[in-house]
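Appendix B, example 12.
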Amino acid sequence: MSAITRTPTTEMEVTSIRLERSLKESLKAISGNQGYQALIRDVLWNYVQQKSGEYRPSFSRDDIRASLDATAQREERCVLTGKVIRPQEPMLLGLTTGGDMVPLSIESMVG
């Protein structure tokens, strides 16, 4: 996940959210030393940044193991260049070293 500027907890507002017990336990298990509340904040910030167009995952061409030809079905953003890929435009789906499928513009993998 991308680095988020840390706000001291004394400057945060308390918010109550209901989570299934199994979800909370799963979050605790994968959060490690970070803590599950900090993990939830990171996930929410990433979601807000992605939806606002500010999100820039830190991928490089070295992170792409393989790519497949594809056609965008909705607007996407290339994870390498940030270029908008419009619906029905040719694109690539890249398989990362971490096992994620990510959108790539055709130009991002040329050269």
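The mean pLDDT is 87. The beta strands are 64-71, 76-77, 84-85, 90-96, 101-104.
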